[in-house]
Amino acid sequence: MARPPMALVTDIKKRPAGTRRRVVVLDSDDWRATSAEVLTDLGIRVGHIAPREDLARDIDEAEPVLARAKALRLLNCRERSVSELVEKLTRDGYPDEVARGVSADLEASGLVDDERFAHALAWQLLEIRGLGRRRVLWDLAAKGVHPDLAAAAVDELVSVSDDERHAREMAARLAARLGGSVDRVASRLVRKGFPTGVSLRAARDAVDALAHVDDPSYLQESGD
After folding, report:
1. Among 77, 130, 156, 185, who pairs with 203 as Cys (CB 3.0-4.6 Å)?
2. What are phi and psi of 193, to 5 degrees?
3. CA angle 13-16-20, nearest 5°?
4. Separation CA 206–CA 204 (nearest Å)
5. Residue 185: which of 162, 209, 161 has the closest Cα?
6. pTM for the complete prediction?
7. Start and end residues for every CATH 1.10.10 domain found in the chain
């Protein structure tokens, strides 16, 4: 039986720059893209010689195994949405179908759960960072959480009245730190995701309350 023709790895390109995606060049022709992790694991570098069929088989077998290991390391750091996990794996150079397959398997096993992720992140953004509903919904969408899941998670944690109360509490702290500027306090609240109307009302109330506290006549009246 004739031996299969050998191919020489003449270059390995970084495409695009800033990612771990690599394009393997065989005999001066762009052949296939994969992750740098796969090439390192298989020992494929410039000057490597092997049959194309063997290279393709080895990469096909290594990609899902290494992509899964990468996904588990990411999940060990923190919860992630399915979309976020797929994006991270593809950015690391794994083919889209491999990234989606690995993420789907982890979702089926319960290791990835968008509902759980949405609730955990919403709680952190609302309670720890003190953001408003609108900003939290935007951040959840940016992480690939479906709007319905995001809305349900936020609604479970905070109502519209709670949102307004949080805005007032934050406005009081901001007014004390930034001074008596309604515009500055309101703009900070808006950037944190509170509605413009709520932000303006909370800022005016906080600045007004601060002005009364700083007014000696107010303090004298309060002491009577």
Report:
1. 185
2. 100, 10
3. 75
4. 5
5. 209
6. 0.74
7. 6-109, 113-158
Q: Is residue 198 within 8 Å of residue 224, measured between CB atoms?
A: no
217 pLDDT tier (thresholds 50, 70, 90): very low
Q: Which fold has domain 6-109?
A: Arc Repressor Mutant, subunit A (1.10.10)
Q: Are 193 and 135 in contact (CB under 8 A)?
A: yes
> Which conformational region is residue 78 in: left (phi greater than 0), alpha (psi within -120 to 50 degrees), or beta?
beta
Task: Report the alpha-carbon distance of residue 194 to residue 199 in Å, rounded.
Answer: 6
> Residue 18 has which token pair?
């800033």
CATH 3.55.50 for domain 113-158, yes or no, is: no
Percentage of residues of the chain with pLDDT beyond 70: 92
Over the stretch 91-141, which tens digit does the pLDDT of each residue have?
999 999 999 999 999 999 999 999 999 999 999 998 888 888 889 999 999
Helix (H, G, I), strand (E, B) or coil at 64: helix
Helix intervals (H) in 78-181 = 82-91, 96-109, 114-123, 133-142, 147-157, 160-178
